[in-house]
Amino acid sequence: MEQPSNQSLPGGDRYWPTLPQIVLLGDSALLVRFGQSLDDAANRAALVFAARLEADGIVGVVEIVPSLVSVLVRYDPAQVGVARLSGELALRLSGDGAFGESRTHRIAVRFDGPDIGEVAALLGLSIDGFVEAHNRGGMRVLATGFAPGFVYCGFHEKALVVPRRTLVRPQVAAGSVLFAAGQTAIAATDIPTGWHVIGHTQFRNFDPTVNPPTQLRAGDQIIFEVVL
User: Fold this and answer.
1) Distance in angstroms (rounded) separating the CA atoms of residues 59 and 57
2) What are 40-84's pLDDT values in tens digits?
3) Within 10 Å of residue 210's Cβ, how many Cβ atoms?
4) Are strands 29-33 and 21-25 parallel, antiparallel or unpaired?
5) Residue 175 — φ and ψ, nearest 5°?
6) pLDDT grade, residue 102 (50/70/90)?
7) Which of 104, 134, 109 lies closest to 219, judged by CA?
8) Is there a contact between 32 and 12 (Cβ–Cβ < 8 Å)?
9) 13 pLDDT exceeds 90?
10) DSSP states of 19-41
């Protein structure tokens, strides 16, 4: 994986959906939700909003966690009340959103997963044709989570969308490259999964001995490269 380089994320300047929601979660967290289902606009809005909060440094906010279509905001009630914080968040939802800086990562993949033939057949492609289509253009890290270092990357074109497997594998190895629902995911630890395993990579997005323990973050750009 080569050194990342800074570049602006693609797209225009307006990403806010019509009605983002601020939801109370317990006594020390708020959730700002930009959609009820995963789509590009909602994901972009969540990433933009999280970046804005990080840049502003609101008093009392202790953690900002973007997910696929929402942003979790954890706060210290001793420093800021829920009414004040909700107002601060609403204020930052009132303007246009624009992406900040992003990093581009090149990740080498050996497309030898046990499900790649089945996936290609479902799409009416040869294995080589599927790999070429999969790697056509870059992808964006949509979110991190589920397991340490696990990343969701998207979106593939509609012609490449396949459902998840009907059976869950009890475990796939760290470095497995997974494919389903218009996305590619990368496992950084051994995990169970219902996604199709299409390949493997030597890249690991989790090292508990360093700070931060992950290299990829939501909004980063990913270019997949073939290793023979």
Assistant:
1) 6
2) 989 999 999 999 999 999 999 999 999 999 999 999 999 999 999
3) 9
4) antiparallel
5) 95, -5
6) confident
7) 104
8) no
9) no
10) --EEEEETTTEEEEE--SS--HH
Token representation of residue 72: 């979790």
Place of tokens 């492609």: 125
Is it the case that residue 9 has pLDDT exceeding 50?
no
pTM score of the predicted model = 0.84
Task: Decide if 123 contacts 39 (C-beta within 8 A).
Answer: no
Closest CA to 103 of 162, 32, 151, 60: 151
- Give ∠ CA 100-101-102 in degrees, rounded to 5: 125
Which amino acid appears at position 108 of this protein? A
C-alpha–C-alpha distance, residues 78 and 62, integer Å: 12
Which residues 6+ apart lie within 8 Å of 105 measured at CB?
1, 2, 4, 215, 216, 220, 221, 222, 223
Query: Residue 49 is encoded by which pair of tokens?
Result: 């909003």
SS3 54: helix
Distance CA 34, CA 36 (A): 7
Q: Residue 225: CA atoms inside 13 Å, Cβ hemisphere, count?
A: 11
102, 9 in Cβ contact below 8 A? yes
Contact 184, 177 (CB under 8 A): yes
Residue 172 corresponds to which amino acid? Answer: V
Instruction: Go through 78-106 and write b for each residue having 16 or more CB atoms within 10 A of its CB, e for each that does not.
Output: eebeeeebbebbeebbeeebebeebbbbe
